[in-house]
Amino acid sequence: MFQSFWNSYSRGAAMSLDPQQLLRRWLSDEFALRMEKNPNYSLRAYARSLQISAAALSEILSGKRSISEKRSQELLNHLPHAKEKIATLQESFTRSTRIKQLKTYGSAYAEEMLPKSQNKFMADWRYFALMSLLRTGDFKQHLDESKLAMRLNIPSCDITHLLQELQAEELIAVDRRGILRCVEKVFRSPPLYPKNLLDRRAKAGFKLAAQAMKDPEKWHYVDFVTITTDVKRLEEAQSMIDDFVKRLGIFLSSGEGSEVFELSVNLFSLSRPNNSTRPAP
Residue 134 and which of 2, 72, 140, 266 are 20 to 30 A apart at CA? Predict the structure, then answer.
């Protein structure tokens, strides 16, 4: 049996389910309410009220049939608060379409694996944040180290040192006008990236996310789900997450870049394995 808990946080934004899930939930909830009022109320009677066949309704409620946005709206017109439900459903369909469109995006930058000698650049968030900020419009005409420090909340003396290291490794370079530029590449960590460095980077990311939640000037969004999981699917899930993060990153960076964001996805176990020998706390 699948059990889940959904929650999300963003400044004023509400969590939105997949449109098919959303429709099934509303139809199921309404059917349950009607049966509560009348224990003899049948699925066939419910289908007649929705002007749909009982077989089709049964398939929709069981998740065996998906229906179009137009047909979904026709069904919702027979439920209470139809106007509000239809507006929410339209938003959900729009979001679902945008996710599918991610598959069409390609990066304008060449992808390159970082050599082992540059592992430290992946372990410290400041390097790539600095490189990303150099790609924004504010620094295309003039390099202002004090402004870089202010935008990233990093001491000015650290900015100077970080820029020198990046330039020495040719990750940034001086153009013909004498302005530092980030190389036109995107980087990936190697498959055998040291776990201690990866853990350090992840912990720094958690800390930065917590700081962003407290800062009214910073935009922050979280969406999470707690689920019963088949551990045999974790390897495939990891590949799906890698692909999604890459495509969403390309989508977000394809416009006119003005700010630097961090995108991360965390999938981790809450329960210990059945064969765990560690005592409970």
Answer: 266
